[in-house]
Amino acid sequence: MREPRESECMALLQEIGPILEESLRIARSSPLFGSNNIVEGPLTWRFFDRKALKAAGGMEDDSGPEAVPNIVVASEKDAVITSPQIIRLWEKMSLEPYDQPKDVLYIGVVPDNLICIEKTKKYLMDLSRMYEQCRFGRHIPFSREVLRDGLLRVPTRYPATNPGECDNFLNQVERHIGDNKSLITRLKVYMQYFENEMARILINNDDIFSRDKYRAALAENQIHSVQHVSIATYQCGGYTVSNSDHMPPPSAPGSIIISSQSGEASHDPSSTSGPGSSGVSIGESLTPDGSIGDGSAQNMTNFSSFMTEQLVADGIIAEDEPGTLPHVIVIYLVNPFLLGAEENALVARVVTVALMRAFNALLYRLNNKRRPQLQLEMIALQNIFDYCGVSADFLKDERGRLNGYDQGRLEKSQNERLSSSDSLKTIAFSVYTHSRVVLPDIVRGILPKSMTRFGPASAMVDL
After folding, report:
1. Cβ atoms of 317 and 219 closer than 8 Å
2. In angstroms, rounded to a whole number, what is the distance separating the alpha carbons of residues 247 and 259?
């Protein structure tokens, strides 16, 4: 049989066209009888929705808003289905997420300026308290190499490296910025230093992605988090550091005392160390001004390592429960380019895209198995300054930095300002609710073993 000609196809369509048009114009689903049910068109979405509601029957033309979906939270390890408005009372209701905790090892990237460093340090410390207060998990800094207090300090000058995609992007948008060539120059330095130094730190310290290293960092953080550190008497290789008084003050309640004779950790608040003993007490200051004598930096390093091993060995840092997901490494990238009068919509878009491109370039330089554990959170330097301000700035416009419209998380109106605690809670919720990518190797490790090789557990392992 031959293929039909075009003229034959057109003739057939002309014959069946009127029949199809008449069939489509008849409303077959209408419950009414004896009426001329002709479909009108073309219909707008609003009119189409109204006709659908009329055909369904029993519904008004103007339907009300959809109900807000409920969320599932945990209260004393019990699941509770409630309204999202309860997030405002998260701490007061002692709620926690109905999921595994998300432990965080964070690194802050901040300009090398004393004021910026001090304010960022305070901001991240308060964020750690808020994160742990919300029962999201542990939130500790990664202090290694150049990362003092977990902060990577970006200098104002940095030798130019090989141009990459980020530089090409900035060169393309430079003509649209106008007279802000200095902004492009500072942004290039910030991006290149962040990408190169962060890649070097993560590659050289590959063990920070392991859970054992996180537990060791957690032990070190518990040691350094004590505000007043005292060493009643510390003897190392014949060198002794002691207080000026012959009789040391009594130990504070809850202090940790480690004796070299017994080799065990004690939490007895009544235990004290004599002037000739080799015990170590944490709870008071070493000297009246809280400083340590000259030449004792190496001794304190050895002491910190010894305390870390002792805390882990004695079970003070508990072992992970079976099925615990790995921790995440959060990079808090402080954005100093939208401070004060320099902020405008175009610059904000360019800076945000450039910093995101720098983070993507960092991911490409890491191993594929390490990328899912990295997470980026950008914080405006203006928000940090507003949080650390000693008083409220009532002369600021209604779209202040602590405004719910800018934060975009908690249910706040556009002109309602967020408090300092709400600002921290916004970042804490953002860190925890960030999706986690779990590799198949991790899934195989946390799933229970199947004895029969039947069922969904075996199917998940075989994926």
Report:
1. yes
2. 18
State the chain's mean pLDDT as an integer.
71
Question: Which whole number is the average pLDDT over 422-448?
Answer: 81
Q: Which two tokens stand for residue 92?
A: 């007061």
Q: What angle do CA 128, 398, 401 make, to 5 degrees?
A: 25
Cα separation, 445 vs 373, whole angstroms: 16
Residue 7 host element (H or E): helix 6-24
3-state class of 75 per DSSP? strand
Integer-rounded Cα radius of gyration of the chain: 32
Residue 371, pLDDT above cutoff 80: yes
**CA 285 – CA 244 distance, rounded (Å):** 12
CB atoms under 10 Å from CB of 222, counted, come to: 17
Q: With 0-12 CB in 10 A as exposed, 13-18 as middle and 19+ as buried, what is 159?
A: exposed
pLDDT number for residue 92: 84
Rounded to whole angstroms, the Cα distance separating 46 from 401 reads 38
What is the value of pTM for the model shown? 0.65
Over the range 82-116, which residues count as b (16 or more CB within 10 Å of their CB) and which as e?
Answer: eeeebbeebeeeebbbeeebbbbbbbbbbbeeeeb
What is the percent of the chain where pLDDT is above 70? 57
Facing residues of 97 across strands?
Answer: 73
Q: Say which DSSP state 32 is in.
A: -
Instruction: State residue 94's pLDDT score.
Output: 85
d(CA 145, CA 334): 20
Q: Which residue has the tokens 């808090």?
A: 332
User: pLDDT confidence of 413, banded at 50, 70, 90?
Assistant: very low
User: How far is CA 195 from its chain centroid?
Assistant: 19
Tell me how far apart the alpha carbons of residues 190 and 343 are, in angstroms, rounded to a whole number. 17
Predicted pLDDT of residue 126: 93
Q: Give the Cα separation of 420 and 431 in Å (integer).
A: 17
107 has a pLDDT exceeding 90: yes
Query: How does DSSP assign 380-446, residue by residue?
Result: EHHHHHHHT-SS--TTS-SS-TTBHHHH-SS---TTPBPPHHHHHHHHHHHHHHS-----HHHHHHH
Cα separation, 10 vs 179, whole angstroms:
63
